[in-house]
């Protein structure tokens, strides 16, 4: 069984997704060790990663993007691992140095824009200005709160059909 989030740690095993761990009494017969390890893996193989455990900004575990200790300014975000064409369009327009108007075309794109303006609300001004040059951005800006609510509602499920459909109604699917 493949479960890379279940690891051997301190005289035992730990599940990096739910945070639970076991310790085996040492010394232990190797057969018992293997059997107990396998049982632990089986129990935790399908543990879901809690949302936010992996920081989308710096790709380290243990904090949510909103609490990221290293990506704590819009400029640090620009250097982060969470940029995409549409979120860059917001940021560069906000900074007054971009002429591109790419809008998000799927929930992954949307997520990058969502995190950027959620963490740095002042950057929202860039989206407002994009709306002056792009009809799609104008509609996204107008309906931003509604889209964010859909995004947050569907986030724990791992797919976002409602968000995707609503984005399409607002013109992001071309
Ligand atoms: Zn677990
Ligand atoms: Zn981080």
**Cα shape:** elongated
Structural class: mainly alpha
Helix count, DSSP H or I runs of 4 or more residues: 8
Relative strand content: 5-15%
Largest sheet: 3 strands, antiparallel
Total number of domains: 2
Question: Fraction of residues in helices?
Answer: 40-55%
Ligands in the model, by name, code or SMILES, are: zinc ion
- Average pLDDT over all residues: 92
Write the layout of secondary structure elements.
Blueprint: E1 6-9, E2 12-15, E3 21-23, H1 30-44, H2 74-78, H3 85-95, H4 107-119, H5 124-130, H6 135-142, H7 144-154, H8 161-169
Antiparallel strand pairs: 1-2, 2-3
The structure holds zinc ion (2 copies).
Residues 15, 17-18, 20, 44, 47 line the site of one zinc ion.
